[in-house]
Automatic annotation (TrEMBL):
InterPro entries: ABM_dom, Dimeric_a/b-barrel, Jasmonate_Hydroxylase-like. Its EC number is 1.14.-.-. Residues 16-88 form the ABM domain. GO terms for molecular function: monooxygenase activity. Keywords: Monooxygenase, Oxidoreductase. This is Antibiotic biosynthesis monooxygenase. It is an enzyme of class 1 (oxidoreductase).
Amino acid sequence: MSDHPEAPVGAFEPPYYVAVFTTVRTAEQSGYGETNARMEDLVREVPGYLGMDHAQTPGGLGITVGYFRDADALTEWRHNAEHRAAQQRGRAEWYQSYTLHVAKVERSHGFTRA
């Protein structure tokens, strides 16, 4: 997550990659919080991981954006064994639906009020 829960992750020098994971969860969330916390710890260990933003609507739509320096970092995360097990459990228990979009960022900038 960003250092400040109310602030987005800062802009990075392009190019870099983003993985946008959009979800609607099921009512069954047993174990989700612990697994999500573990995934956040694990992804931080991936060389080339830059950060993460997350938002949740009151209606249940969740959006997580992971930022990665290069395609190799994203591939390493995708192939992580614990991450793959969490994905399987997510499909079996936690998600009603989800989409994943992966994109190469070619332009990036930000603004922070002084």
